[in-house]
Amino acid sequence: MTELLLTRRLRPVDLYAVDAVLALVAGAALCAYAALESPLDGSVVEPVWVSVLTGAVIGLPVAVRRRFPVGVAVTVSLAATAALATGVIPNYAAAGPSVSLALAFYSLAVATPLRWSLPTAVGCLAAVVSALAVTGGDLWSATGAVAYGMLMTVPGWLIGWTVRERRALAARQSEQSTRQAVAEERLRIARELHDIVAHTMSLIVVKAAVGNHVAEASPQEARDALRVIEATGRGALLEMRRALGMLRDDTPYAPAPGLADLEALAGQSSYGEVDVHLEVGGPVPREAVPESVGLAVYRIVQESLTNVVKHAAPATCRVTVTIGPADVRVAVTDDGRRSARAPGTGHGLIGMRERVASHGGDFTAGPRDGGGFAVSARLPHAPVEVAA
Questions:
Q1: CA dihedral in degrees (134, 136, 142, 148; nearest 10)?
Q2: Which CATH superfamily hosts domain 259-388?
Q3: Cβ neighbours of 313 (radius 10 Å)
Q4: Averaged over 116-127, what is the pLDDT?
Q5: Residues 242-280: tens digit of each pLDDT
Q6: Strands 274-281 and 315-323
């Protein structure tokens, strides 16, 4: 219970309660005590009620320093100046108002922009220093008055200004982190949608062209093409709903595609006149691969197969996924011929490279010496414990 009270964030009512205690104990009581001191030069001693009233006027405004920082700083400074100038607070007891002045100047610097707090602080400091210099006599030289007045006021203002700057810096860093997180989330969703749309639309276009070509000569083959288009479209809609559903706070996360879905992905690509040979294995079971790494592997294979369907079909493609204890290695090669206009780098390759980089892995892609194209990726991971 005690630890909770010490570590929890104070509410506004708690802060005002603390200020009220400071105003009564450290402010009014201390200033009244200083005012009750008798002057060393034998001047007239004021009535007790004047000393108490002086302490109240200097100390009690501290209770509302958070709500009226400028007004409290000016009020406390003028009251202290008047008390020092009239001798109600003797010059040797000038440290009495220092707590109220420090708290007032701290709040002034924390809650007020520099263009307002600095001139106000300088004006209040000048008033206090003037009172000290006038009443100092032989004890207080002008230099000593300035030094003592600055000692009572400047540290509080400097601490408040430092706190304000640190809070502003933290706010800017938080805003920058938020903008970066939003940008990364937009990039992630853009990659997901690109992979989903590019892959499915490539298969749909290929099968639509086949269906259109054989519609009259072979109606059965045309219907087969339409069934492939329907199945591919339904799958794409499901994946898009899953990807876009993550943007809604009240939508639970659906399982993302992973290593277990590679067989179905290879079967889809075969509709696009690509003969896919898939091998998934290694010393570590698929279940030990983290979901994020499994999704990255799936998207890399998906984009690679999409490129084969778009640029190299008909072709034979070999996909090898090796699951090791420290990384997952992906190799996708094909023997297809690409046209001279086929892009060597595009959003698909950029997206694959970004996915691999986000996991701290390595990625290469380019034409093979013997013809065709090769994609290679290594994604490090920490194996997930699999329940027996």
A1: -110
A2: Histidine kinase-like ATPase, C-terminal domain (3.30.565.10)
A3: 17
A4: 88
A5: 766 666 655 555 567 788 888 888 887 776 677 888 999
A6: parallel
